[in-house]
Design brief:
Strand content: over 45%
Radius of gyration: 26 Å
Largest sheet: 24 strands, antiparallel, barrel
Shape: globular
Distance between the termini: 44 Å
Oligomer: single chain
Structural class: mainly beta
Number of helices: 5
Number of strands: 43
Length: about 750
């Protein structure tokens, strides 16, 4: 249920960030002031320089959350000013607070600045189309979250890290903040571009989770990026810097030593890798990227991956700069291109071009062996280990019109003499914001040709040419009273995309989601800020595949889920759905009744609780291997805690636990899968921290009293300690120690990794 929960939360944010057409006037726009005294602004959080006295201040902030219809509190007045020179944008924010002792000031991990903290967020669309925006959030401890937000799916990607410089000064009646954003990291057309657009937000968690934004409320907005406010006074700066050249060199040194035992054999190893990333912008509309022998050991992420990105990199969020550059131009649906299919490149080249009404990007990489190749079937995803290097290439272009986008792309995965997988496609998006509702329609079509396959042993072989097609269409209608979403997806039996993510093939899937917005409600004395009645429906059927022996029209799954969702005080969110579902485990098998109740809850009940989240499904669960249904469920619990310490230190604790099980007929679970993770981060400053990660996973199958399947038991243990120090953007030193065990089979490994990244 996380997609529903996220979408509804994102809808609340999106709805409030729009402004009514024609409402802006000279007093309601943010105006940039030139900072032309020849001296760069000193970023110290104090707005006491003469330039700030000359810059116009914008204070048109409105209350976004809670959406209780009340005006923005007078005691939380906020102003923003903008200075521009030939190097950067510099924002000055003054935030008043009538209860400054309650402001939440605590260190956190990068990209973990959220609504449980006081922060300022800045969203910039330098292209002006309203299709994507770069954003940063800075909390009162100077910690940054940043990323890219796309309007097409109204979701944020926290992967990109921008070289912003920020400083905060606490004041008796609030705080002031300065944020410097280099122009070299903002992407815009060389000439003829639209006006830049901007949004500023302010989080005040102690005021019942208040979020203030620089645009009035509109409840039918599909995406807040469509209504970012235009910035005045940028034209002169854009003309002055569009010919400036920027180049970044990022060498990286990784040293690793490991030892372990597997199958009774002990081993040791040492490895030293030197890599380089090159980012060049010869002028505003062109960006070139290159990566040579990068190390993607992932020692700086929370997931327990120690020996290279490896074949489980598919499940990790993208944090590799080469793939994140120009992600807004790529803008493809997930099946078309998924960067995690490239696990360990030896080298890569990429170029991106932007114009006022068009853009394009192209890349080519040589991927080393070891990654996963996914080939979908109606009832399963077959995984193959990539045993030899491959070449991954992609080309993408788009044309932008008023409310219309047209795109084309082509990709190839070449298997060095053993054939290839080639995909071409077209896509389009239409948006309408007229009248009393907003509408959006998207369509994507792809065709694949594949001459590479795998034999029974999982080895790559050249195969007979096979072709397949893919079609996806989606329509969204939003008004003050309704959110309606319809989607149709068809994946032909022969469709393969080894540069994308296609876990199923040979199916057609239809989905519908209807949400009736009922606004604020009062239930037994509890004030609900938002209340919605929901209905979800979905059905998956097979497509005829004569070669594979798959009949057409067979129901794989069917869902009918009515329910409710609401928001309440203390950032509380709750949803529940009654699932009248049916599922089939295999071709020709029984269509099982899998009725269950699904519910979720999240909130921040105390200042030291960053989040409590629970998701639960209880009822009839399908055991696919046994092709039977039994009582069971799936439970996930996440608890985040944050404690300020002496000397300005901070302790972050994240706990995660999940369990999935299907009960047998002998009084115990026939199948169970469990995972537990404890993550502790001790922050010494906004630049350095010590991270301890402990994770256990275990799964088992026992006699279910019916199928007599072979019993098995698996257990994995991971422990890691990481110290990380960043003395400026792009200059990072880290040291990590990892222990991994599989106790039941006697396998264990230990590794020590030292990494130095240096930006020139």
């Amino acid at each position: 249920m996380p997609v529903l929960s996220y979408r509804l939360s994102a809808l609340l944010l999106a709805a409030s960030l729009a402004f009514e057409a024609g409402a802006a006037d000279e007093a309601g726009r943010l105006r940039a002031a030139r900072h032309g005294d020849g001296h760069a602004a000193v970023i110290d959080g104090r707005l006491d320089e003469p330039a700030w006295q000359r810059a116009p201040a914008y204070d048109g902030f409105h209350k976004h959350a809670p959406r209780d219809g009340k005006a923005a509190p007078a005691g939380l007045r906020t102003t923003v000013q903008l200075l521009v020179d030939e190097q950067a944008l510099v924002f000055g924010i003054r935030a008043w607070d009538d209860a400054p002792q309650k402001m939440r000031v605590a260190l956190a991990r990068r990209d973990k600045v959220d609504l449980d903290q006081d922060f300022i967020g800045i969203w910039i669309d330098p292209v002006g189309h309203g299709r994507a925006a770069q954003f940063v959030r800075v909390n009162l401890a100077g910690v940054v979250s940043d990323g890219l937000h796309r309007a097409s799916d109204d979701e944020s990607d926290l992967g990109p890290d921008f070289p912003v410089e920020a400083a905060v000064t606490r004041l008796p009646d609030g705080y002031s903040m300065e944020v410097r954003w280099p122009l070299s990291n903002l992407r815009f057309p060389y000439r003829g571009g639209k006006d830049w657009r901007l949004l500023v937000e302010r989080s005040v968690p102690h005021a019942d989770g208040t979020l203030l934004v620089s645009a009035p409320l509109r409840t039918d907005a599909l995406s807040h990026l469509s209504f970012l406010r235009e910035v005045e006074g940028m034209g002169e700066t854009v003309a002055a810097v569009r010919d400036r050249r920027f180049i970044e060199l990022r060498p990286e040194l990784t040293l690793r030593a490991d030892r372990g035992i597997a199958d009774g054999v002990r081993g040791r190893g040492r490895q030293a890798d030197l890599g380089l990333e090159i980012n060049a912008r010869p002028r505003a509309d062109w960006v070139f990227n290159a990566t040579i022998n990068p190390d993607y050991s992932q020692v700086e992420v929370d997931q327990p991956v120690s020996q290279g990105a490896g074949n489980i990199a598919l499940s990790l969020p993208e944090k590799r700069g080469f793939f994140l550059e120009s992600a807004d131009v790529l803008g493809l649906p997930l099946p078309a291109f998924y960067s995690r299919t490239v696990s360990n490149p030896a080298w890569g080249l990429r170029a991106t071009w932007r114009a006022a009404d068009a853009d394009a990007t192209a890349m080519s990489l040589r991927d080393q062996e070891g990654g996963l190749v996914l080939r979908g079937r109606p009832y399963e995803t077959i995984e193959y280990v990539q045993p030899r290097p491959t070449r991954a290439s992609l080309w993408r272009t788009r044309w932008h019109g008023d409310g219309l986008l047209l795109g084309a792309f082509a990709s190839q995965r070449a298997y060095e003499g053993l054939g290839s997988n080639d995909v071409i496609g077209l896509d389009a998006q239409w948006r309408s914001a007229g009248g009393d509702a907003q509408r959006q329609a998207t369509v994507t079509g792809m065709h694949s040709r594949t001459t590479s396959g795998f034999d029974m042993a999982g080895q790559p072989v050249r195969s007979r040419r096979a072709s397949g097609a893919y079609l996806h269409a989606k329509y969204i209608h939003s008004s003050d009273a309704w959110w309606n979403e319809f989607a149709l997806e068809a994946i032909g039996p022969g469709f393969v995309n080894d540069n994308g993510f296609v876990p199923q093939a040979g199916i057609v899937k239809g989905t519908t989601e209807l949400a009736r917005k009922l606004g604020g409600q009062s239930v037994t004395g509890i004030e609900l800020y938002e209340f919605e009645v929901l209905l979800q429906a979905a059905e998956v059927r097979t497509l005829l595949d004569g070669a594979g022996g798959q009949p057409g029209g067979e129901v794989v799954s069917r869902e009918l889920r009515p329910g409710i969702w609401f928001m309440a005080p203390r950032q509380t969110e709750f949803w529940t759905l009654l699932g009248f579902d049916r599922q089939r485990a295999r071709t020709g098998g029984k269509l099982h009744d899998t009725r269950a109740i699904h519910l979720g809850f999240s909130g921040t009940p105390a200042p030291w609780v960053s989040k409590i989240g629970v998701e639960l499904a209880l009822g009839r669960q399908l055991d696919a291997d046994a092709d039977r249904v039994g009582p069971g469920g799936n439970v996930t619990i996440d608890v985040g805690l944050r404690f300020p310490l002496r000397r300005g230190w901070s302790l972050e604790l994240d706990h995660h636990w999940n369990r999935a099980w299907v009960q047998g007929t002998l009084g115990h679970p026939a199948f169970a899968d469990n995972a537990w993770r404890w993550l502790a981060n001790l922050h010494f400053s906004a630049r350095d921290s010590l991270r301890l990660l402990a994770q256990n996973t275990w799964g088992a199958r026992r006699d279910d009293g019916v199928t007599q399947l072979e019993a098995w038991n698996e257990r994995q243990v991971h422990r890691s300690l990481l110290y990380r120090y960043q003395w400026r953007h792009g200059r990072i030193a880290s040291a990590g120690y990892v222990i991994e065990k599989m106790p039941l089979v006697g396998t264990r490994s230990k590794s020590l990794t030292l990494k130095l990244q240096w930006e020139i």
